[in-house]
Write a structure and sequence with these properties.
The complex is a heterodimer of chains A (360) and B (514). With 360 residues, chain A is mainly beta. Helices cover 3% and strands 44% of the residues of chain A. Chain A has helices at 93-98, 337-342; strands at 15-20, 26-31, 35-41, 47-54, 60-65, 73-78, 83-89, 102-109, 116-121, 129-134, 138-143, 154-160, 165-170, 181-186, 197-203, 208-215, 224-227, 236-241, 245-252, 266-274, 281-286, 292-297, 301-307, 313-320. In chain A, strands 1-2-3-4 form a four-stranded antiparallel β-sheet, with no helix packed on it. In chain A, strands 5-6-7-8 form a four-stranded antiparallel β-sheet, with no helix packed on it. In chain A, strands 9-10-11-12 form a four-stranded antiparallel β-sheet, with no helix packed on it. Chain A is globular and about 60 Å long. The two termini of chain A are 37 Å apart. Chain B is 72% helix and 0% strand. Chain B has helices spanning 2-13, 20-32, 36-45, 55-64, 68-81, 86-98, 110-129, 137-146, 150-155, 157-160, 163-174, 183-195, 203-212, 216-226, 231-242, 245-248, 254-269, 276-284, 290-299, 306-318, 322-338, 342-352, 355-372, 378-382, 392-408, 412-424, 433-444, 453-469, 478-513. The longest helix of chain B is centred in the C-terminal third of the chain and has 36 residues, at 478-513. Chain B is rod-shaped. Classes of the chains: A mainly beta (360), B mainly alpha (514). The A-B interface holds A 1, 22-25, 43, 68-72, 88, 90, 124, 148, 229, 231-232, 288-289, 291, 308-310, 330-331, 333-338, 340-342, 345 and B 203, 224-230, 253, 256-257, 260, 263-264, 267-272, 289, 292-293, 296-297, 299-304, 327, 330-331, 334-335, 338-340, 360.
């Protein structure tokens, strides 16, 4: 059972990204109209726009929230070759009455020489850290050593991917058994570029990120990538949005078998591949426990995927972009009302006036 | 849902054997199908029951549900009302009375029952052949029903209402000693006969069929598909698991499936603004993934009010989820700092045992004091208690406040010693030293001597220590003025210290002298 709510976003151009905050009560949207809007959910369940401001001098591709332990912080990235970090300032009482809040720019990250295509905060146990990726194929990792001072960020790592990057995902696992890990997807269309997904792992000894794996089977342009939250599994689950929806598991091979000090080797298995969208899949997003995956595609639908207790993945729901349910699917009855609540924690680009389609 | 649940209880949990099985099924039908009782009350309540429009309908339903005693009573009313059919009514009534049923606690075996039933069945048959009831079509059809005649039963489709009622009635009057394993055959044929090819089975029908086939797995699967939430399957599976039925039916993933479904249901509860508390309990009963699922979910609950936050924290603390406690308190503390509610921020930091953040908030308090000359949230600082030890800065804050209190209460010697210890113990932040030193001034200017000679020496040493290590202001302007003001104050302090030293030495000297 799904309830769809239509929110007139009032962006003057295509909306490229939608992001919910940690608790699912705030939402940020960004658009080619160069602005970011922040929406708050009232007690009655209505969404109100509480801030709208120009953030960049080009299309804003992605927007993302930091963990609330660091306050109310957003990061955005844009075609104008920059990424920016924003903090909400508690406003004057007049503003509060009008339901408006102010966001100020804390820092601009200008190291990229090409369009910055994704920005994501690292898991909170790593401190206040974020990664950006650009069309020039470089992933940059920044850290703010003093969490109370958001204007000081230093570039800690530059990872060269050799392919134009389109998306990144941090592995959210905070287990000590897992080193920090970041997956990078590419939509590079040059004929030499083959494998489009790379996994980098932080090495404690060299204090650098090194390439751990390349997913050789993914050869089509990748639009989105997402690690699933880890419920204590020893292996990782990665979802990829490309010409179809794919789910991979990465099982770390025991360290004794690899050369010590090198990056972990992984056994890679594909556990699901769905082409139900019958078109390019643009976004994939996990729920809180990593048990449900949502995907959105050019067919204008959002699909939900779930594994049963036998670890078989199946589609458990379809939602059209205009909010109406799709009939004729015998699986539809499997839809779980809890997904209605997990939807706030899913990110998909189908709200508002248009779907998230990138122009190359 | 209750319909399915009760059926599952009868078939899977009670595991009724042949004979008793039918009785249970009869109860099941009576409970869930047909509101006979209101009709019964209607007809009985009327002046002339046997002339009531629905009289025969009522009697038929009673017979269909195997409620033969009541049916007999109805017939006797008809007998009274129309003497012509009295004879027939009596015969039929006798047949009803004599139908052999298995009564609980009865020692007769199944074979004996079958034999008796066979005799009775033949007697009914004989009456029908003899056209005993020929003159009354109603009575004749009743007799046919009691013989288990399928055609007669199907005629009563409307009264039966559904195929499972048809099934039970059919079994009652043709195979009362049906064995559980044969049940599904009759179920399937009943469904087919009843629907007669006009309509196709609904999801509910599939679920019931699966139950009659004793295929637990299929029941759960069908329910998962048909029902809109996980409540039913989660609880049913849980019940079956506790009865050890999932294992016995060779579902090796039995306990996994139970946990899987419970996790689904509990996750669903967390979506609700108040039902999430129930979800917590469900997670507690999931041995493998319950705890970690709870950890992930509970952090995400929006903390709209302080009560809710406290509730969530209590739940975490009860389960030793220290990381979640720390994180939630940190989020609340951060939020408080942003909104300049320093007292609230401090108390959350203390609860989180977050020394670093406590230091930060204490610094803010002290900074506020420097700027405004007073403290906010005095209550909190005054009542810190042992929590003061969390961070040095916090301890300083608490003690400094204590100093102010001593001064206010005119406990001057206590205030003096405390002030001195604050300076000598090194927990005072550099930025605060000048304030501490200047705080000594009023104490030095009291009429009586507050600082002893030794204490005065200490103070002088601190003063010189501070003066020599003071940062040199590089920027001109405001800081210069401040520096000048400071210098003046420090000069006054030196003077006061010197005077005090003199007075103290004299005082101490004379006391000892006299």
């Amino acid at each position: 059972m799904f309830v769809a709510r239509h929110i007139p976003a009032d962006h003057k151009d295509l909306i490229h990204d939608v992001s919910f905050d940690f608790h699912g009560r705030r939402m940020a949207t960004c658009s080619s109209d160069q602005s970011v809007k922040v929406w708050d959910k009232s007690e009655s369940g209505d969404w109100h726009c509480t801030a709208s401001w120009k953030t960049h001098s080009g299309s804003v591709w992605r927007v993302t929230w930091a963990h609330p332990e660091f306050g109310q912080v957003l990061a955005s990235c844009s075609f104008d070759r920059t990424a920016a970090v924003w903090e909400e300032i508690v406003g004057e009482s007049n503003d509060k009455l009008r339901g408006q809040s102010h966001w100020v720019k804390r820092t601009t990250l200008v190291d990229s020489r090409t369009s910055v295509t994704d920005v994501k905060f690292a898991p909170k146990h790593m401190g206040l850290m974020l990664a950006t990726c650009s069309a020039d194929g470089i992933v940059r990792i920044y850290e703010a050593p003093d969490v109370m001072n958001l204007s000081q960020w230093s570039l800690q790592h530059e990872i060269s991917c050799k392919l134009s990057c389109s998306c990144i995902s941090w592995n959210p696992s905070s287990s000590r058994a897992h080193s920090p890990m970041i997956a990078v997807g590419s939509d590079d269309s040059s004929p030499n570029a083959m494998a489009k997904v790379q996994i980098f792992e932080y090495n404690e000894n060299t204090r650098k990120y090194a390439k751990a794996e390349t997913l050789m089977t993914v050869t089509d342009p990748v639009h989105d990538i997402a690690f699933a939250p880890n419920l204590g599994r020893s292996f990782h689950i990665l979802a990829i949005a490309t010409k179809d929806v794919r789910i991979f598991t990465l099982k770390p091979v025991r360290k004794e078998l690899t050369s010590s000090g090198g990056p972990t080797k992984f056994e890679i298995h594909i556990v699901a591949q769905f082409d139900n969208h019958n078109s390019q899949v643009w976004r994939v997003s996990w729920n809180i426990t990593g048990t449900v995956l949502a995907s959105s595609g050019d067919d204008g639908c959002v699909r939900l995927w779930k594994a049963n207790y036998m670890d078989n993945w199946k589609c458990t729901g379809i939602l059209k972009g205009n909010g109406s349910p799709v009939n004729g699917n015998s699986q539809q009855g499997n839809s779980n009302p809890s997904l209605g609540s997990n939807i706030p924690n899913l990110q998909n680009s189908l709200n508002g006036s248009s779907s998230g389609r990138k122009h190359s | 849902m209750e319909l399915i649940w009760n059926l599952c209880e009868i078939l899977f949990i009670e595991v009724a054997p042949a004979g008793a099985l039918l009785l249970h099924l009869l109860d099941w039908v009576r409970l869930h199908v047909c509101e006979v009782d209101s009709l019964l009350a209607d007809v009985l309540g009327s002046e002339n029951p046997s002339k009531h429009d629905s009289f025969w309908k009522l009697v038929t339903i009673l017979v269909l549900q195997g409620r033969l005693d009541e049916a007999r009573q109805m017939l006797s009313k008809e007998a009274d009302a129309s003497p012509s059919s009295a004879g027939m009514c009596r015969i039929l009534g006798d047949l009803m009375r004599t139908m052999p049923v298995l009564s609980p606690g009865n020692t007769q075996t199944l074979t004996e029952l079958e034999l008796k039933w066979q005799h009775w069945h033949e007697e009914c048959e004989r009456h029908l052949q003899d056209s005993t009831f020929a003159s009354s079509p109603h009575l004749e059809s009743l007799c046919k029903i009691m013989l288990g005649d399928e055609a007669a039963l199907l005629e009563q489709k409307e009264l039966l209402n559904n195929w499972y009622h048809f099934l039970v009635t059919r079994l009652l009057y043709s195979h009362p000693t049906v064995k559980p394993i044969d049940l599904h055959l009759y179920a399937q044929s009943s469904l087919d006969l009843f629907l007669g090819g006009e309509s196709s089975p609904e999801p509910l029908d599939n679920i019931l069929l699966a139950a009659f086939e004793f295929d637990i797995h299929q029941v759960i699967k069908e329910c998962s598909i048909a029902l809109s939430n996980w409540w039913f399957v989660a609880h049913l599976t849980d019940l079956l698991d506790h009865c050890k039925l999932l294992q016995s039916h060779n579902l090796y993933f039995g306990s996994n499936m139970r946990e899987f479904l419970l996790l689904e249901y509990a996750s669903g509860l967390f979506a609700h603004h108040s039902l999430w508390q129930l979800g917590v309990d469900y997670f507690d009963y999931c041995p493998e993934l319950g705890r970690v699922s709870l950890e992930l979910h509970i952090e995400r609950i929006p903390l709209s009010t302080e009560q809710k936050a406290l509730k969530v924290l209590r739940i975490c603390e009860q389960r030793q989820m220290t990381e979640q406690v720390r994180s939630i308190c940190k989020i609340l503390a951060m939020n408080a700092v942003r909104n300049n509610r320093l007292g609230s921020a401090l108390s959350w930091s203390i609860r989180a045992k977050d020394a670093a953040f406590a230091t930060l908030v204490s610094d803010r308090f002290l900074k506020d004091y420097c700027e405004r000359g007073s403290f906010s949230d005095l209550d909190l600082i005054d009542n810190l208690g042992p929590a003061m030890m969390l961070s040095d800065r916090l301890t300083f804050l608490g003690k400094y406040r204590e100093f102010h209190r001593f001064y206010g209460e005119k406990r001057l010697t206590d205030a003096a010693s405390l002030l001195l210890s604050l300076m000598t113990s090194q927990i005072a932040p550099r930025s605060f030293w000048v304030i501490l030193l200047i705080d000594a001034l009023p104490l030095l200017e009291e009429k009586e001597v507050v600082f002893s000679a030794e204490q005065t020496y200490e103070l002088m040493r601190c003063l010189e220590d501070f003066a020599s290590r003071r940062p040199v202001w590089r920027e001109p302007g405001v800081q210069r003025i401040q520096e000048d003001v400071e210098n003046t104050k420090l000069e006054m302090l030196r003077l006061a210290l010197a005077r005090n030293l003199g007075r103290a030495i004299i005082k101490e000297g004379s006391l000892e002298g006299s």
